[in-house]
Amino acid sequence: xxxxxxxxxxxxxxxxxxxxxxxxxxxxxxxxxxxxxxxxxxxxxxxxxxxxxxxxxxxxxxxxxxxxxxxxxxxxxxxxxxxxxxxxxxxxxxxxxxxxxxxxxxxxxxxxxxxxxxxxxxxxxxxxxxxxxxxxxxxxxxxxxxxxxxxxxxxxxxxxxxxxxxxxxxxxxxxxxxxxxxxxxxxxxxxxxxxxxxxxxxxxxxxxxxxxxxxxxxxxxxxxxxxxxxxxxxxxxxxxxxxxxxxxxxxxxxxxxxxxxxxxxxxxxxxxxxxxxxxxxxxxxxxxxxxxxxxxxxxxxxxxxxxxxxxxxxxxxxxxxxxxxxxxxxxxxxxxxxxxxxxxxxxxxxxxxxxxxxxxxxxxx
Length: 365
Description:
The protein is of the alpha/beta class and 365 residues long. It contains 13 helices and 12 strands.
């Protein structure tokens, strides 16, 4: 099984941004020596929730510091970018890394970010579908030419061309009925960032898989990738404290950044689910929702962490994990210990599993 790690660049503890970057870059540098299969980072803007505004730049930097690991975006938010520029940046990373890029894409959820870029959130789903279609087609053919409602692109070449085909190397975090048909037709896998009840996630995953089979002659969809925030410690009481303080700290930061308690999200096209979520948060309280987010993640002794990840793998038939070890104001020395212990005790056991799929491997066109 493929197991990657993700930097998070989160600044919740009054650190300078320079201190955050020194620490997170150090975490990324540890990934390959510790045996992880890939390095990832998410894209976010304008606050301390996570501070990597240009994922491609970070991955190009890591390409020059590594030899083996895959390099993934978790995710690049397409409505905030012109798809030609994304295609060029991804192709560049793929060339300088020798074909190690893995592309994760999404449509975005943070209102602060849409407002900062002057992009209408009501258009995000439509833009995501159009931009994804143009982007994936451009990476495969080396040419982008597209006429849609939002994107009007005359024919241009993507240079440099990608090192290899991106078939099998693209994942989307958006699985709405409207986007799933496009994702299935383009052969895009699913990246699950756990923020919904498992029953809702399984419902969306089943819908995507059904559409994928329908549009690909009965072929099964790629196995999903799951992003997990991990707290691993030999002492179960310390692991429980890490869950209580830092995984919940991450959950509280997500609640604030995404405005999950804002009932006005119901009035934004494509975000109706989050309006219903806000009403549920109003009913049960914000701390209950923070606990819910935290309990979707993974914590405990190495044995407990392994068992929890195996349980999740079985539930969603995952093809791999992307793990996050530093978040929520966790002290930096504890974050390093967290990652190192996981790499010694849990990582080899997960990697020994044959799940019948390979993440980041280009498939024949």
